[in-house]
Amino acid sequence: MDTIKLLLCMTVALLVGALAMSWKNFRQDVRATPKKELSEVHRQIAEIEQQRKLLQEEKERLMLGVPLSPPSAPGTGVPAMPDIPEMSEQDAPETGAVFPDETPAEEVAPVTPDMPALPDAEQRAKAIAAAPVVAKISEWLEDPNLGTFAILEILDPAVVKADVVLSVRRNSGILGKLKVGEVAPEGASASPTAVFGQVKPQVGDELIVEP
Q1: Closest Cα partner for 174 from 201, 147, 152?
Q2: What is the three-class DSSP state of 178?
Q3: Which end of the chain is more exposed for a tag (fewer CB within 10 A), N or C?
């Protein structure tokens, strides 16, 4: 028993000596550490402690079912507002409201100038058929060198004069127009104002002043 007590005392003495040496070395290390490094260590410890407190608070909120508060805006203590998407005109509810740029414009009736009523085809045909004959085609010539022209038989000298434009009538229709050139007692010459199509004037066609 004395041997065991002796061994225990020696062990305790060794442990106490080792602890004293360790404490002495720790104090020496602390003194040898620069103040700047110590302050940095203290700051990191404070941040770790703050994070631990935040985690503990979040854990308690989750356990109690309390919704989390919105995160604060960076650099301020005010909670940041959530982003709200802009509502377009198409997504807007149909409430009968009218957007400023959608104000209905007043409908303005188109203003048309007063146009005289055109006679129908039957009335025009009757007017052409009733027009008096002032000349007749006595000869129709198409010469490559001289060109296309007509020789007229004058029936109304008061109307058939130089530079007068007459219409070629066949039945109750107009084939085209001739412009009177030289006028002589035996007759007159006239040239077309436009090229005739497949239906061309011929001897016997009547010339009138188109109504």
Answers
A1: 201
A2: strand
A3: N
